[in-house]
Design goal:
Radius of gyration: 19 Å
CATH topology: outer membrane lipoprotein receptor (LolB), chain A
Order of helices and strands: EHEEEEEEHHEEEHEEEEE
Number of strands: 15
CATH class: Mainly Beta
Helix content: 10-25%
Number of domains: 1
Structural class: mainly beta
Shape: globular
Distance between the termini: 36 Å
Oligomer: single chain
Number of helices: 4
CATH architecture: Clam
Strand content: 25-35%
């Protein structure tokens, strides 16, 4: 059965032979590897994650977490900004020094999908775009699309860790460990000084978005040093990271046009 054009089937993502997002079914296109989506989720089994030593002190903790990321090239994620809002489900793939991401939101029959690939962003927004529109990832030409790109921020884990690596004030245990992504994950509260952070994290303070110079990140960390969950306790934000290292392919749509929502 031939595939529909990419502009009509927003998702073009293969994740471990299954469709990315909720393990299966959240994305509409066939897996690029040619396999069919699973009929249902497999029975979870415990994973013996390799050990990785993380030093839980302000000087080393985020650097060690970045080091744990170094041999891993992909992951899936589910991002919720608010319990009442639809989830953003997607996947990420390393591309040299940057990560490509794809995410999809479905709400009341409408579909929004964004692919961040290299320096480009491709947006499919029901009712606003006819297929995919292309714009700059770093300087998008439309404020509406820019807001969607910003919403991806917490899912770009390596970027968040790098922006706050030299801004850590304190590290403390955040409670009992829980099983996430089939491994035990221990929560740690990492307080950062936004005045010393860079990028989007630093701009929270310099832009006036917050007057509090300090922010807390709660990171659930597995025995392999990989983050399984990210939250900010002062907000309802939660990002779950799963399926580390499984095959992911994120491709630019062939027939994307330059994005011009203004007319």
């Amino acid at each position: 059965m031939p595939l529909l054009p990419a502009s009509r089937v927003p998702a073009l993502v293969a994740l471990g032979g299954l469709l990315a997002g909720g393990i299966s079914g959240a994305f509409a296109a066939s897996a690029l590897a040619g396999s069919e989506p699973a009929a249902g989720p497999a029975v979870p089994t415990a994973i013996a994650a390799p050990r990785f030593t993380v030093r839980y002190d302000p000087q080393h903790v985020l650097g060690d977490l970045l080091e744990a990321l170094r041999p891993v090239d992909s992951y899936a994620f589910t991002l919720a900004l608010d319990p009442q809002a639809p989830e953003l489900t997607g996947a990420a793939m390393r591309d040299d020094d940057r990560w490509d991401l794809v995410g999809r939101i479905e709400e009341d029959g409408t579909v929004t999908e964004l692919r961040l690939i290299g320096d480009d962003a491709y947006a499919f927004i029901s009712g606003l775009t006819d297929g995919f529109g292309r714009t700059s990832r770093d300087e998008p030409g439309d404020p509406f699309v820019a807001a969607y790109i910003d919403s991806f921020g917490p899912a770009e884990l390596a970027t968040t860790l790098a922006e706050t690596r030299d801004a850590v004030v304190s590290v403390s245990a955040g409670g009992a460990s829980v099983e996430l992504d089939q491994v035990p994950a221990q929560p740690f509260d990492v307080v950062v000084d936004l005045r010393r952070a860079t990028g989007a994290m630093g701009s929270r303070f310099t832009s006036g978005a917050t007057t509090n110079a300090y922010a807390m990140m709660r990171l659930w960390i597995g025995p392999d040093g990989l983050v399984r969950r990210y939250t900010e306790p002062k907000t309802s934000l939660q990002v779950d990271f799963t399926r580390w290292g499984e095959d992911v392919v994120i491709e630019a749509p062939d027939d994307a046009v330059e994005l011009d929502l203004g007319g």
